[in-house]
Amino acid sequence: MKTHFQKILPAIVLFVLSISLQAQNLSMQLIGEKQIGLPAVPQKAIPYGSYCYLAAKGSGLQVYDITNVASPTLTSTIPVSALEDLEVMNIYRKADRLYLALGNFFGNNGQQSGLAVVNIANAASPVVEDVWKSGIQDKGSASVVVEGDYAYLCAMSQGLIILDVSQPDDIAFVSQYIPDPDFPTPNPAPAQAPNARGLAIRDDIVYLCYDAGGLRVINVADKTNPVETGRYINPAFSNKQQAFNNITLHGNTAFVAVDYCGMEVLDIADTANIVQVSWWNPWECQSPSNIWVGSPGHTNQIDYNAECQLVFISSAQSELSVIDVAVPTAPELVGSYGSTDDQQGTWGMTLDSNRIYLVYITAVIPFVSNWAGIRILEWGKTSKAIELPRTPPLRLYPNPARHSFQLEYDLTEYGEISLEMTNIQGKVTKQILQEYQSAGLHSLAIVPQLPTGTYLLRLITANATHSIKVVLVEE
Fold it and tell me: What does the alpha-carbon distance between residue 376 and residue 31 come to, in Å, rounded to a whole number?
């Protein structure tokens, strides 16, 4: 007699096959590069037609002609003297305008946070329309996103600043929101103090990467009165500082770059109760041997290609990582560029159709990099003669469950694993097992003996965390 899982397995396979690129191959080819010397420390590159705009920190905004993509040519510069002496740290483009996040945030040099609006109707000769800067000297700005008539500025220690840019030549301050800094660490030391680093916005909800303060959900329907309605930080460990740097959204799923901890996939359907779906953790963040300084990878800027269901991340000494998220519970590295041993590290990354613009910086801490500039890659997926569907690593039935349920999971290699159940806030409510297991398919009957409610079942391996919702109901 077939089990319930055996009956539904063909449907699961067909579903996964229909949404996934399976074991897809990627081709990536270097088609152009430009080395940039000091004092420029490039941060972010934005292409537009035949030009590429570079946030060049102390060298302002630089414009490169990429008609000959193999050899970008510097054509013009807007110096920091035209930007209230604030360094250019990031760029956002909307139509024929650039929005520059201003104010150096490296080394806490005391710069104010600011925003500049730059007209690029004449692409080769950008014109500054207005510059706004805050009245507080602190840690500058990390990024900016524009939606409608408003710019949302990540002002590091000064939190989220909302500016009215409906009149590009007259930027107007609207409001400022500094999230509670005492989560997850009360009275954090300076090194643990949270900073607004990156954000995504949709339907008047801001998803703010608050660095050591995790992910904050802020309702900005009333622009004059932002309200925090949810927060999340990885509950797997509390003895190490985490750093939520940037985020991209797809439906009810968020992909978050978490510095030397890789990427988290989060379910944001209920923003008051954000749930971890999986954790791509290639550098074993929880390991005592992996500390922030000298880690082989630091994820920073992130983007998503919906057609191919791929996430692209600049990953510092690991340079570029491409992750297949067609099965969100099982993110899989399917492409990369660069080497951890070449002493070259990325900071910025922009995905533009079939091109990737990687921005490299010179650095000593937290990773060693001795080359600064732009590299332009062309990417595409290549087909295989035979492709096998990639099924999710956790399969659970029945669900909802009354007294017990059956769990099946695949392990790709021998190693130590942990199975646990948590509540939706991430607190462990039941440790099921912790042991070494062989590669292959495993099956386990679980009698949770927990109150009715919604839980997460988590499988933790050396390189990743996979989660699935479990609903327990009354007999």
Answer: 6
